[in-house]
Design brief:
By secondary structure, the protein is mainly α. The chain is built from 17 helices and two strands. The chain has one domain.
Amino acid sequence: MILLLACTATPVDTADTADTGDSSLVETGDPVVVDGYGFDNASYSGQVFRNVLIGDTKGYLDELTARIDAGEYYPAEGDVEADLNFYFEFDSSVGGPLPHGVSTDPAASQSTYDDISSGKDIVGKLAGNDPTGQHKTWETEFVGWDHGGDPEDLVRAWFAEVDALAAARVTGDIPLSPDGGPLGRVYVSPEGQDYQQLIDKLLRCGVAWSQGADDYLDNDTADKGLLSDHTTQVEGKDYTDLEHAWDEGFGYFGAARTYGDWSDDEIRGVYMDVDGDGAIDLTSEYNFGFSVNAAKRDLGSVSGTDFTGQAFDNFVAGRQLLADTQGSELSAEQMDELVGYRDAALDAWERSISSTVVHYINDTIRDQSAMGTEDYDFAAHAKHWSEMKGFALGLQFSPHSPLGDEAFAAIHEAMGTGPELDPNGLDAYKAGLLEARATLAAAYGFDAADLGDDDGENGW
């Protein structure tokens, strides 16, 4: 196997601010005064670790084509699956001492996987594999891809597809794109599935979003999530189970601890040496996945959304409430307040995901409009479609979603399991994508100005 190392406040009423993105906290007493998410006992290294593992999975695939084409790697059947399982089924006793693949300048404070955390993997936290508290039985209720199984089954099926494409490429058997040229990326199928993007997005949604919304920040299962104990500290720790659950939800959102002080452009830049020590602390100075997407959508919003502010302010306010009440059981009023912060944080998080689906619907519409012209780029079309589909699959993982099951299924019926490549079907497929976009807008209260026009222009 060859591995690539590469304060008292209430949450904003989001029903009144969904269009404007005005998501600052509405003060009802003394303001919250904290240094960002600067709680000394905050603990979420495991979530950072999984964010790193998911990113390294994508990084491995990013380099795979070049390594094969340069003669540096000759994977036989099964080799690429084994490589991908290094990350998916991560074993700290094997991989812990190895350098992770996160590259920063200056370098990260943590140089190896063990420096971040240990004893964690991806597969164990994927939707369907957590033994209690999930709002659906994913073996039978997973929607959006006809593979006859749960999210893990689908991820493994995609691993197998990339494995087969890689082994074939070694022998010179390279599939052709619709324009007749050989495919330039080993993880792209001739049908237009970009497995790098599909895998990455399903893992991010099926682990980070699912765990955040349906586990650590949920309140439907005794002794779990927001119903965890808050009266005593965890043995050997300085936080309660409830504080830790809240931290873990925040950790999966992926924001740096001073995220609220960063501009959207700075967040999009991913990391900063905030404390000036000449290193990037991956647990406090780096933005992962969803927290970056939120900034990108805010930057692209015509109406002026503030998903970043809404999510972070409410994560901080909820954690401050827990810090102020540590050692006591929350009153009904305090639990209602905490749930309000949770609802507002998850609302911003989910709308950042669904608006990203809108963004890639628009990209896909523009891509297919260029088919048959010299401007057409099949790889870009496959990438954009796969990002659209992957993020859209993730919208089923929250029990708090405003998107109903029927609407969700209709969106995926319109998207299908690959981009439309038949010129005779383009008009109907575009109409379906526009209907899916309208469905998302209605469910999430998006301003029409952010959606774009019928040609996918002038919006997200």
